[in-house]
Design goal:
Protein name: GDSL esterase/lipase
Oligomer: single chain
Radius of gyration: 21 Å
CATH topology: Rossmann fold
Pfam families: Lipase_GDSL (PF00657)
Distance between the termini: 61 Å
Structural class: alpha/beta
GO molecular function, one term: hydrolase activity, acting on ester bonds
Family: Belongs to the 'GDSL' lipolytic enzyme family.
Helix content: 25-40%
Strand order of the largest sheet: 2-1-3-4-5
Number of strands: 9
InterPro entries: GDSL, GDSL_Est/Lipase, SGNH_hydro_sf, SGNH_plant_lipase-like
Strand content: 5-15%
């Protein structure tokens, strides 16, 4: 009997067969920036991209900062809730364990992060998409050691994946003279570099088991309050918006092509530009009164960049599209999520599991830190 048991242990070690059987749930793995960050940057002590001070999180839970760059929920929170998916915790959350991952998935999103490694370098610490993918590989090792290679492969292939980055690659890289990319490339060559890098990253994710994946494009990032206040007119910066539209066009083609080329893949592109643009262009239609300035601001001193305890809040947060200079308010995220659910036909996972798989995912929208 002892000899037989030893053989079993050896087989487990060599073949990756788990001693535990996994009755795994459908979960999400989210790769993103500050629009999807649920607390990773809080644990990056040297990062300058932080949502760790009041009044962030004032309208969520206990009202204390929780790492989200808003007064409340992210779009991913809201869509995931509507789909019956668990909210993935931050990768750096100290309470994260193998059991938590199997129950909830993981969120690797990091404020200031981009598709390119050099993006957001002046924030000092942040996770680029390549770094997030590296962390995901570590997650896979943990799960394989927990449930074995076969069950782990099934778990990761049945999961949903969201990739939502790109705004920082423009706003906190190409459009800032402090970054070498701003003078190394022109609009066309930078777009080729950026989208080509994204294509390589999506191939890596497929190799790691990502079969049902949605990539979200950019919204009118030239209309965020920071871009408006930096313009001479106070209007949206159309050059920046054009870059967003060109990125969406190029990355949409890449995602669609990969969906045809990569085996057993269901890859989709989520173009949220028109959804967010409609809310910004016609705020009263959606119940808003202000779509060009932040609810949380430092009086007349602008741009204040982040919301801090000394900042003043607008009288009614539900009437403002933007919470700070970069990010939508909870109410705007709710409106954007509702419109995205309509546009992409997201369904509850308990309504899709019995049918052929499709990437019913929880996305993040557009403008960024």
């Amino acid at each position: 009997m002892k000899f037989d048991f030893a053989i079993v242990i050896i087989a487990v070690s060599m073949l990756g067969i788990g001693l535990e059987r996994c009755d795994c749930k459908m979960v999400q793995f989210i790769f993103g920036d500050s629009l999807s960050d649920v607390g990773n940057n809080i644990y990056l002590s040297k990062s300058l991209a932080q949502a760790s001070l009041p009044w962030y999180g004032i309208d969520m839970g206990n009202g204390l900062p929780n790492g989200r760059f808003s007064n409340g929920r992210t779009v991913a929170d809201i869509i995931g809730d509507n789909m019956g998916l668990p909210r993935p915790p931050a990768f750096l959350d100290p309470s994260l364990t193998e059991d938590v991952i199997l129950e909830n998935g993981v969120n690797y999103a990091s404020g200031g992060g981009g598709i390119l490694n050099e993006t957001g370098s002046f924030f000092i610490q942040r996770f680029s998409l390549y770094k997030q993918i590296e962390l995901f590989e570590g997650t896979q090792e943990l799960i394989r050691s927990k449930i074995g290679k076969v069950e782990a492969e099934k778990f990761f292939q049945e999961a949903r994946y969201v990739v939502a980055l790109g705004s920082n690659d423009f706003i906190n890289n190409y459009l800032m003279p402090l970054y070498s990319d701003s003078w190394t490339y022109n609009d066309e060559t930078f777009m080729d570099y950026l989208v080509g890098t994204l294509q390589d990253q999506l191939k890596v994710l497929h190799g790691l088991g990502a079969r049902q994946l949605m990539v979200f494009g950019l919204g009118p990032m030239g209309c965020i309050p920071l871009q408006r206040v930096l313009s001479t007119s106070g209007n949206c910066q159309e050059k920046t918006n054009k870059l967003a539209l060109n990125f969406n066009k190029a990355s949409s083609k890449v995602v669609n092509d990969l969906g045809k080329q990569l085996p057993n893949s269901s890859y989709r592109f989520g173009d949220a530009y028109d959804v967010v643009n409609n809310v910004i262009s016609n705020p009263s239609k959606y119940g808003f009164e202000n779509a060009d300035s932040p609810c949380c601001s430092f009086g007349r001193i602008r741009p204040a960049l982040t919301c801090i305890p000394a900042s003043k809040l607008c009288k009614d947060r539900s009437k403002y599209v933007f919470w700070d200079e970069y990010h939508p308010s909870d109410k705007a995220n709710e409106m954007i999520a509702t419109e995205l659910i309509k546009k992409f036909g997201f369904k509850r996972v308990d309504q899709t599991q019995s049918s052929s798989p499709s990437p019913e995912l929880a996305p993040s929208p557009t403008s960024d830190d």
